[in-house]
Amino acid sequence: MLVGIVGPLSAGKTTVGHLFEKEGFSLVSLSDHLREETEQQDRETLRALGNALREEHGPAILMEKALARSSGDTIFDGIRNPAEVTALQDSGGQIILVDADPKLRYDRAMARGKDTKMSFDAFIEMEAKEESAKATEQQLHILRNLADFVILNDGAEEELADEVTRVVLALRELPK
Hints:
The chain is α/β, with parallel strands linked by helices and 176 residues long.
């Protein structure tokens, strides 16, 4: 079974990925390939590199590389472009949107210790950079409408774990 996670910054996508690992899935990030290509691991560098690869090799290139790394039940994190969603769906995959209130997401980002001096407005501006109109760049705003399942992550981690279990059970009931 193939499943992709989409959603805005600090919504809990990686946490959902780890919860899927506890359900027997392998976790593959589309950023894994990018991290292997550069020593600089900051968000801006990875975004620019991903956009350049999409421009050169087509907008689904990162998912194509991630699919090549996958085997068995796999959950994909780091999906940023509709073509990546389409490539996963064409391979039989399902998409989960993980979302949360913007202020809560900002608070989570600050609690992680990265960019702790960033204002809420700067956080929202940074997020806007992932909403390009260009087909070979990040288009998170379009991905919301492509989801097969939605997990609202506004509660405690136990509630999130319950939601993941609910979605995994629903996924396992889908026809193969």
